[in-house]
Amino acid sequence: MFKNMKLGFKLTIGFGFVLVFTGIVALVGMRGFDDIRDRVSKAKAVDDIVKELFEAMDNEKDFIITGEFFYSENVRMQINNIYEQLKTTNKLFHQKINKDQMDQVASEVKLYEKTFIEYVNLAKEKDIAMKHMQDKAKEALGKSEAICLNLQTELDKLVTDHAEVIKDKNLKLDDTNKLVNYRLEAKAYRKLITHGEKQYLKEWNAVNQRISLLTDDMKSRFKQEKNIRQADRLLENHRKYQEAVLRYLDTESDADKKRVSQTAESATKEMNAILTNQKAQLAEAQADFEAKLNKKFIKVNDANRVVQFFLVSRRDEKEFIISNDMTYAEAVKANFAKTLDLAQNITSEFKSDLNIKQGNALISALKAYKETFDSFVSLTRKQWEANKKMAENAAKTQKVCREAYQDQESKMSNEIAFSKQLILGGLIAALLLGIIASFLITRNITGAIDLLLLHLKEVAKGDLSRDIPATLLILREEMGQMAIALQDLVNAQRKKARLAEAIADGDITLDVEVTFHNDLLGKALEKMTFSLRNLLSQVNEAATRVDSGATQVSDSSQSLSQGTVQQASSLEEATSSMVEIESQTRMNAENASQANQLAEKSLKEANHGTKEMANMVAAMNEINDSSRAIAKIIKVSDEIAFQTNLLALNAAVEAARAGRHGKGFAVVAGEVRNLASSSARAAGETSELIEIALKKVEKGNEIAEKTADALNKIAVSARKVAVLVNEIAAFSEEQSQGIAQVNQGLGQIEQITHQNAANAEETASAAQELDRQASDLREILGQFKLSKDLTGQQMSARTSDAHPLSKILANGQNPEITRPEKLENIQSSELKHNEDIIDPKHIIPFDEHEFDEF
Fold this sequence. Notes:
This protein is mainly α. The chain has 16 helices and no strands. The two termini are 49 Å apart. The model is unreliable at 789-854 (pLDDT under 50). Its main location: membrane.
């Protein structure tokens, strides 16, 4: 039964099973691909969460560095994107472990968001605290400067008051010296009067009058009760002295003379007492002034130190704000402790209510500043902790996402392995089934085909003596029909072989006899003979034309080969030039990179120079302040020199009064006066120099500020230069890559050009060979015999009377080739009765157009 089945039905059954298994394998593969695509989409969703987290962290760092709230808004926006991505990703997952992972990620992201919001709020609080700290710092600095100004005012007032006191003391001392001089003058006049020269009595009275008036004036200016009593006693003794002298002039007795001496001695004693007391008061006033001045200087110095310590604390505060280094915070605390202790010490030494009030206000301002600074440091520590928590939350989020990603990768790998196993199993099953089916079908078919193939090989070799085995002729399926058709073909070929032998011998003059009007092969041989005659004539002419054309092609190919070689040489030179350009471009890129590094280094140096210039401006301001303080001290020294000069003058007066005994003291007083004058001149010159120095320092400050501005502009320009040089480096690198690609393309063109040159040489060689073969072809065509009697018209007339198939062949049309299914309609009995006559329908016709390829 299986042997008699149609071959198509057998193949359909075999391939049907294979296709069924193939479809199953395809369905399994498609299902596996869908699962893999689902895993990939889930892994990508997790990876998108990580990317959004990284972008949020980048904006977080930008916010921490710059403090711009624009970046905080970006962080919040990206966190919202993460939430949206988590919702989308959570919908993709179906397993509890993955949903738990996404819930954990959401929890960590919420903690991260909460910590970041806390960090942002701390930043806002820090800004407020910084403003308060700056306000308190300005307040404390203003209070300290107010104390300095008040102390300086008190110092100036002390110097002014002392000058008034010294002036008053000196006037009183001068008046006392005048009294002494008046007493000496009166004594001289008294001696003259007592010796009988009465004409000097009037001058003596005038001198005594001046003594009385001057004593009354001094008494009115005395403030101490002791001095007033001394003045009263002096007036009383001087009055008694005058009365005694006048009485002595009347009596000229020894008792009155003694009385004169006693009263004169008493008056002189009171004058000396007043003089001694005034000198003592002057010395005491000077000592008191020096003590008070020393205390004031100490207070002013301490107040200036408070300002200096506080400014140092402010400097460390700025460094802490910029760098967040706790070393600077500790330095601020240390300097602040010194500042506060010094302020408290100054306040404890103040006597006036105003100074005490200012000192207490300064202490309160300093403590308020300390509180705001401690608050700022505390907020900074909290920010550090928040930043640490954000990093931990981000790390946990990344870890969970990485675990989820790895879980999806693992599941995807397992699904791929499972799909591979299913596909491999299905392929093995389909392969086994196909092998079994193909073995059964092939074994059924190949037996008959082997016999037919063996006979066909013999026929192909030209052996037409063997017949088809009878075992094949009795089969009812396609193989049996093919065996019958092959046997009929062998019989027909035997008859036509003899005609073909004659044509093969080159005798084309023979005419083919057609024994049957449907003898397609006979008519085809007849047509072939006619066509061969025309063909050989045309081939002969074509061979002549080919011979001439081959010569032209050979010459053109030689010219093409030479031009291609020249073109290859030019391309080699162009390639060499492009290599040099590429090298120079790469060198330009390297130089631009080095220039970029130098520009960045210049930018750093310019920034460093700007910072150093700012420090120099601050130092010059401090020098300016110190110079002004020194100028004030010089002013005090000038005033002291003035007072010293007055004291030296008084000493010279006293030395003059002492006579020869005071001569040495007069010399010393003169030297002291000279030294005081020298000190005054030196103080004046020093003051002028300090004024000049102050002007130069102010000018230096202006120059330093201009220099700082210039350095800032240089830094900006250097930054722009760095950006431009960096862009030049990038463009040069891109240009180098582009030139390298062009160079590579030129190399390929050069290679193709060399190949074209080789092809041109081969074409020239082939053209020469074609020329030689055309000559050989003409010699071969000379071996054929062509009939001169048979014309194309006669052949056409004969073919017009033949079978209609001949008309089709004559018109150049392709007849339909007999299909195998048409052979099924042929009955085997008809084939047996027509062994000698072959039906043209069963013969595959030859078309004359098949020779066009030759």
